[in-house]
UniProtKB/TrEMBL annotation:
<dbReference type="Pfam" id="PF04970">
    <property type="entry name" value="LRAT"/>
</dbReference>
<dbReference type="InterPro" id="IPR007053">
    <property type="entry name" value="LRAT_dom"/>
</dbReference>
<feature type="domain" description="LRAT">
    <location>
        <begin position="20"/>
        <end position="169"/>
    </location>
</feature>
<protein>
    <recommendedName>
        <fullName>LRAT domain-containing protein</fullName>
    </recommendedName>
</protein>
Length: 221
């Protein structure tokens, strides 16, 4: 793994690792916890009940659905009816995408140097056995309602790895990709008062980039 990419081979991941893959031509990433045996526990929407209509959900394109069937693993797709936490095989999790491993305990300089959020955190990971225990517990007990900005698949994986999840204030969750998606337009908006201090487009871009990085650092767990 490096500064530009966290891509890894299947032989490199270990039980308890936080893994992810990119969806929709790098529009967003889907995250999960590798629990060993080519199995992944991850978080998505609850199973649709009969007669429900999800076509009005404007964020459905950004939500990774659980696979309907798998010819390789009989228990692939295990998901309680009232829960969004699902167990799948690694193949169904990746959907022919590349495999990436989320980094923990990175220095602040490395964290801020990453051009896109949702790939690393300055927080330290708990031991693998603790991570797997949390993931399997949530598979049987649920993780609440899925929300693309406040409680998504990355938040689930971050909680399994660290036990940290902000619940006091509504808004953006711990996930880096959610804060990145909202951080850019907000940084541009709030940097407007500083335009007198930033002469020209280069100065304005510098201020905006600085506020974007500060926002990512503040929202990181």
């Amino acid at each position: 793994m490096g500064l530009l990419s966290n891509r890894v081979e299947r032989s490199e991941i270990r039980p308890g690792d936080h893994i992810y893959t990119w969806r929709a031509v790098y529009a967003y990433s889907h995250h999960g916890i590798y629990v060993g045996g080519s199995k992944v526990v991850h978080f998505t929407r609850k199973k649709e009940t009969e007669g429900s209509d999800s076509s009005s959900d404007s964020t459905s394109i950004l939500i990774s659905e659980a696979p309907s069937e798998c010819p390789t693993f009989p228990d692939c797709g295990f998901q309680l009816p009232s829960s969004g936490v699902v167990l799948t095989c690694l193949d169904c999790f990746l959907r022919n995408g590349s495999l990436y491993c989320f980094e923990y305990g990175v220095p602040s300089t490395v964290f801020l140097a990453k051009l896109r959020g949702g790939t690393c955190t300055i927080a330290q990971s708990d031991p693998p056995e603790t991570v797997i225990h949390r993931a399997m517990y949530l598979l049987q007990n649920g993780f609440g309602n899925y929300d693309i900005f406040e409680k998504n698949c990355e938040d689930f994986a971050l909680y399994c790895k660290t036990g940290l999840l902000p619940v006091e204030e509504p808004g953006i969750g711990t996930s880096g990709q959610a804060s990145s998606a909202i951080g850019v337009p907000l940084a541009a908006l709030f940097s407007t008062p500083f335009k007198l201090l930033a002469a020209g487009p280069i100065g304005m871009a510098t201020v905006t980039a600085g506020m974007y990085c500060a926002g990512r650092y503040i929202t990181d767990i």
